[in-house]
UniProtKB/TrEMBL annotation:
It comes from Chrysodeixis includens (Soybean looper). This is Uncharacterized protein. It comes from the Eukaryota.
Amino acid sequence: MCVTPISLSGTLGSRHRRLNSLVREAGASGASLQEFQALPEHSPVDRLFKIDLASQLRYVDYIIQNLQDDDMLYVSRALKSKWLVDHHDVVNPKHLEDVLFPNMIKPAVSKLKHWTYINLRDPAMCREFYLYYKDNAFEFAIKFLSHCSNEFILEEVPTILTKLSSQPLKILSEKCPKVAEIYYNSLATDEEVRRRYLENQQSYYNSVKCVLKSDADVFLDITEKYFDMNGFRRLSPSSSDYILRCHKHRFTNKPELYTAYVLHMQTLADRLSVEECQELVMRLARAKYLQSWFQYKAVEPLVKRLSPDKRAAFKKRVFVDKDVGESVDEWPYKVPAPPEHTYPEEHVFDDQDFRPLYVGGGISYPCGVDSLRCGTFAMPMAMMQNMQMSRIVMKTELDKLFDEFRFVGFSRALYELRRRLGGAGSPERRRDIFMVLVSKTGGRSEAVSALLILAARHSNEPVHIRAAVVRSLVKRAQVWRLPADVWNNLLEFGHGLGLDGSTPEAECKEGLHAVLIRQLLAGECQPAISTAFLKEFSTLSEYSLSPAERVQVAAGLENLLSAAALVAKPFVAAKLLDQLLDALNTYRVTIEAASPVVGAIVSLASRNAEVARPLLQRLYQAKVARRELLRLNLEFRRDQASLINVLRHDLLALDYKQFGEILITSKTNFDSFVSKLAIYFQKDDFVMQLRAKLKEKLFENIEHMENNDKTMKSYQKKQAKLARPLAGLSGRDLEMDLQELDSKGPELRILAAALRANAHRARPAVAVASWGWRRAGVKAVATRAMRGRQAERAELTRALAAHRRTLRVALANSMLSAREAQVHAFTAAAQRRPAAAVRALFIYFRRFGDKSDVSIWDIVKPVMLSMDMSILSKRDNLRRLIKDQVKVVPSSIKPDYCVTLYIVLLKTKIKYLYSNVDNILCEVSKHLPQIEDSLELVLLKMLEDADVREPVTYPSIFVRYLLLSKSDEDLESRFEKLGKPFLAHLDAVRKEHDWVFRKLFSETMKSLMYNAAFFDPKCTSCLSVIEKFMAWMESFMPREQHFKQYARVHLTMLYYKAVRASVQQLPAVFAAARRRRVEGVDAVGFVFGRYIARELAQLVTAYFDSVVELYADALADYVEVTLVAGSSRAQFVVSVLKGILAEGVGTQRRLAVYIFKRRHYEMKEPLQKELEELMYKEKDIEVLVHAELERARFY
């Protein structure tokens, strides 16, 4: 029987194996776990032995006990018991959430959740987990759905389509291909699914590609219906090959679609016969709808399937003569397209969103994005568009020559161009001719020979012309394979280009590369050539070498570079060896520990360590000779992986001084290495020595710095990083180290705080909770709190909230607790640390979103209002935070938050802060009925700060606030406080700046139309508000001179009356939101039209008959400016015209004709015909109807 303490020896791997063998022996001996449990635990290895034995004996209670431990080492070890998943009494969602999770630390809960969905495979249990977490943790629940039965998946998927992202869709489709079909079928009916799909449709399409081989018909149906021809990438070669092998009939049915957009072109060409390729190209050429896509480059793989003797004639027939038969103008079948975007449309019963006006400093325009439409921005954009349109792509002479001979064979091209060559007037023209001929050789030896014979006659061409020809020949024709006589012609033509290793007169490294390749393939390399090549090294991978040539060239380059590196200086040798590694990697040559390059790098490391460091790094990353170069890697890499490799393979390399120096000087953490030392090497002398080395370094030179506080603090911050590994190695001695550090005085508080902050890394763990936060330090308490158990969290939060120093920790911990703990923490923070409460509020909003509790905002709101945000308070970051984080505030809180924010920023008296905050009022205006009680203070402040030079920027919010009055008394109170001062302010502006007043007056009048108040039965004073504004108008605007303005106000009054009358007559229609937006439009519009006809009759009686034309102009402008645009407005106007025709008197009905003439363009054709028929029936205006409607059709 094994007795603790368990002692291990050897390398890390040997210690693992020894521990496993002890566990197997104990299990085989028949001893029970209870016997071993009673043994004392002297080291972490003793506990690991017990856990592994319990796992082998399947002792559930002990495994669960370790899952609840504070040390994640034991939690992770316990989770290696995969059999635990079969114990449904333990692994079920209710037991986990109610019993196990509350008693586990937070990281352990996360790890157990991950372990559960990785290992749980039973369909019934997976279904139970999915249903349990579906509503509150969908992202976790969806991980179980793929392991449920197919029947359940098909039942559940239609209910969660709006939540599915591309990755879960892929996993579910792999299990059940029908899921992909269900998802794509829903795009036609579900707007939310369609919106999410269109945001990332390529990703969703990629996620269902897995269905191809399990249910190809589903995938191909999706492709033929929803493939985005303008945006999707083609299928991979393997997918294309599968379709052509197993489902070729789908391609045959729609060859144009699959060829032009879907399939991989080269794979398609390889799978089709020569005759099929030829026929397909002809069919594509006839497709006029593919004209922009169809060109030689697009179908080159198909054309190249033809034999060379037939290819030229076929290309000429298709691309030059266009002899392809009768063209086809339209697709012969329905082509795929992504579902259309459905944008939310505004309704005529919606209210306009006004934006604040900036009317100070001589400028008047709406703030925000609308300002981008002003001429300042429009002019440069227009100029840029004109400049882009004026750019004409001009073809060069070489392009024109290529186009002329594109579909001509080499022999004919050589015959034609040989004659032109002598008559070419410039070297550049002769270069172009040679370039075309090089391209026509196709790399064929006989063609290259003929070309070089011609080129030999022009060996006196300028050097840069010959260099261009040689470069092109090397790239296109693989000249290193030429016969000797032809090769000599090339060398003769390339004289002076450095092909013999001499200094070239013009750059032509491709020619030198061709000479080198030819010599390497021949097994010999002239010194002059190799010297010139090494000056401008290349791996030669850019050339088309055959497999056999690649092997020879790789071997030649290795010999060449290795030999050069042996005799070169260290820096040059390092460069050569780096190039050699590039070459070996390019040619995929396997590097072994015995390879010459490894020996060369080791030799170089002995000569110059720093120069060899990058080469050793490359070998390590390539996993070459890691064990053989272990000590070198340790010296040069000095990272965690190297240290762990020493523990695994070579304990003789353990040098506590070297390892201590690495830990001290490195800027990275070595947590994994330190953890392995603390677990498996705890009693080794090396660990004791390393710990002593770190401790000595931590206290080093402290005595000499005590008189200089600044130097002391700087030194302590530098040394504080040693606290992390020291804490991990100290174990039970950590308390002694802290006591020793504390005994040296408060001057070392930075080091002491760093060591306390890492107390959780000690193994065995230090009882930080029993120390109290003052002794433990806030960071250690914070770590303990954030990792704490759910069952203890509420009590811990209350304890932390009792002290000002730990309030921020309490706030962070409360986010993980229930509502009561959150309320308690925020209440305490609001009293003791208000700034921390405000900052934590936004963390709370980001975490909980729309589920945020309003009571938390109610706690923090008074704090924001009472805090001093002025410049003197030095709270710039806090001011910026509350202003920039509006986007994270939940929609239910945002209106009240915006009002509060406006008040807070106005109190700062900092112009640059609140000058743009007027935009916040736009959000407030949208939710005005909900926050009207808190708005009065804001409006008073706006009036207080406004003057003639900088008037109010948002007049509409004043008007709407008045329209929301609930009674006449309420209206009088509001009008007395705000209405009269507001109108007086406008009067003052009118007297000083008439043009500014016109802007403010226009928005004021438009804002009298307020559907939110008109449809609210509680708002009973809307008509009185409009009348008050009309009375104000009469004080400076005579009716006769401003008929249109008064007519618009009267129309708003008539609209209000129509709304109230319709709501009273049809309460059922307006009680249902959907019916109100459909049937309500016709009801209100018809009554509105009747009221208009009655008022028009009164105007005609009071004035003259031609007032109808004036009124028509005012009504048309009213519809355009006041009513929100959209299809519902067109329907509303139709109903208005019907009301006018029904209630109108005699020729006064011509008002309907005028309005129809100006608004008919936004009506659908059936509505236009319906109105025309109604107007034609009116005999009094029949002639006018014919005349006006004919004129409207003409224009």
